[in-house]
Amino acid sequence: MGAVSIEQPSLGAPQGAPVPVVLASGVKARKAYRHEDILKMANTTSAKKATRKIEARTAKNTARRSRVRTYLRKVEEAIASGDQAAAAAALRAAEPELQRAAGKGVFHKNMANRKVSRLAKRVKALGA
Fold first, then answer.
1. Are 65 and 101 in contact (CB under 8 A)?
2. Does the pLDDT value for residue 84 go beyond 70?
3. Is the pLDDT of residue 31 over 70?
């Protein structure tokens, strides 16, 4: 796991308010409490390990979700430009990424299949 940096709370923040946490991946966790506070709340070693695993999994899933959204945006932009060859190439690159994320549980499999199907239909319509 990497380093976790904690931002300082603003002066007007109430005591015990959630403080944004920047995870090792550089992603700022929303509505997260300070890592040290979570570890203080955990009473057992297994609970402390679980919080570490959850934090690592959250960082990975956030990165996966962001990567998939980037691929989908590239397909949308190619469709908007009207270039069928570029749109088809972008869709071929996006589909495995989307299915991989669905396999890891970041997205539901039906949602991934639905998105691929609808994008393929739009790409096909460009050639007509």
1. yes
2. yes
3. no
Rounded percentage of the chain residues whose pLDDT exceeds 70: 69
Instruction: Count the residues in the chain.
Output: 128
Q: What angle do CA 117, 59, 72 make, to 5 degrees?
A: 25
Query: Could you tell me if 85 and 123 are in contact, meaning their C-beta atoms sit under 8 angstroms apart?
Result: no
Among 116, 103, 40, CA closest to 71: 116
| Residue-level pLDDT at 1 | 47
Task: State the pLDDT at residue 43.
Answer: 81
Domains and CATH numbers, the chain: 5-127 (1.20.58.110)
What CA–CA distance (Å, rounded) separates 16 from 37?
A: 10
What's the whole-model pTM score? 0.66
What is the SS3 assignment for the chain?
A: CCCCEECCCCCCCCCCCCCCEECCCCCEECCCCCHHHHHHHCCCHHHHHHHHHHHHHHHHHHHHHHHHHHHHHHHHHHHHHCCHHHHHHHHHHHHHHHHHHHHCCCCCHHHHHHHHHHHHHHHHHHHC
